[in-house]
Amino acid sequence: MANRFRTEISNIIKKIFPSWEIPAYNIKVIRERNSGRICFKLDEVPLNIKSIEVENGLSSDFCKAKLTPEKNSLSCEVVVDKKWIVRHLLEELEDKLFQDSRLFSVIEKQRVVIDYSSPNIAKPFHVGHLRSSIIGNFLKKLLETVGHQTVGLNYLGDWGTQFGILKHGLDQKWIPFDDIQSSPIRKLFEIYVKANIQAKEDPVFMEKSLEKFRFLENGDENTVKDWSIIKDYTVAELQRIYARLNIKFDVYDWESMYGRKRIQSIVDLLTSKGLLTPSPEGKLIYKFKERPITLVKSDGTTLYLTRDIAAALDRRERFQADCFLYVVDNAQSDHFQALFSIMKDVKMEGATHMKHVKFGRIQGMSTRKGNVVFLDDVLDEAKERMAQQRKRSVTTRTTLNEDYVNDVLGISAVLVNDLKQRRQKDYVFNWEKILASQGDTGVKLQYTHSRLCSLEKKSGVASIPPSSEINVSCLIEEEAINLVRHLLRFEEIILRCHDELEPCILVAYLFQLCNFVSVALRALQVKSQPANVAEARLLLFICAKNVLAEGMRILGLTPLEEM
Ligand code: ARG
Question: Do both 53 and 138 map to the same domain?
């Protein structure tokens, strides 16, 4: 919407300087003043224009503008017609948001593969994977909103000696197969822990485990078959958990897809480009910033990095990707720097658009069950705590299923708590703060959304006319104008999140929106007002609800209509 101003201003300027085409998105708002005065700064002004005496008092139905040439720019002070803004805002937000967003239309659209969540089987889904899932899911929704095509990819770890140990543990049949089937993530973890202890104590067990891994790596039919059954169960369970979080992947890939067989062509490619040097012990080495990095071990087996090279080339091929995002914690920075450098060296298409979307650690996350965190335990605990909190509250009333509401609220609280942090910062996990109904939490977003829904239902306005028939002169109060102004910024906020791949910008915006809504709800009664006032106010609140719901959807929340 703010872009509409820009387009208007750019049109006005075009009237005076027909030869000078300024793209609307080059116009920066530098300050907003009360009284509807908005100042813009125009950069990149051609020299000859700077010296021209600019005519004052330009006007259109939208505004009166005064242009002043400054040193390196042209400043433009505009007195905007408030009614014009309100009308256009309501028009834009009453129904489909971003339908013809000019701001988004200037973004070059890409096919983006987003690698996120990506846990390792048989290991608990640790908090790093939780953050990756939440942030990755947000990025997917954000990029799609702006118009990119995305492939959401879960790259599961199922490769390396540790999986030989697990396989050998599984073959001991310590736990009946049916039990594994019913709860694969926990049972596989139990087996893995026990097998690891054995492998440390008993060299024969270790030897057998290494052999099992070799079987896997060489594609031994039976071993691979057993293995894939285990993996299918694990994915089925993961999918149930992801569904609670509104997360859906387009593709599940495995590290094991890039085992020894697939790697040979990569080794050939790197060798042909002179990028690999054999070491005296027979390893193949890639030099990155003068540091030797092993890509193939002396026994010919591959490493995490080697498999990521193969995976990147494969993603480029399979999805025609031209941008690659890896949502993985800060700790893997070196790994991704090396990967991106290699992909540039082999000149993979899109190699310059590879990005490690890093994030910090969560400290102190534990559940009542202890420190080993399984994702569904976190979500269950959030729900349970929410239920208790709501039992204590006197205002709790809903016609929806209580269990469902508690689950959605608990999950919203956990998600928002994560997304409100600046991505790269570490943060401390604190149940009380996360679930608080006061303060900046997911519960607050849900509460405001359901208040707006209930206002709509109980407004007493039989049918709201379309924005074109609303009398915008009824929206003159400061509270209404402040809300309008804030809503105006939504599109730009989305764009900033897009440029910085940073969810906290949107979360902060939505918290502020809740504050403006709450002030406006107090000041602007809808019930028992003259029809034109009630309709105008209600439409404004509906627009606020639409923006809030859309923002929440992008964050991965399910907006509740009541709670
Ligand atoms: N499974 C890995 C881990 O848990 C994360 C994988 C991230 N994605 C990638 N393409 N390397 O550490």
Answer: no
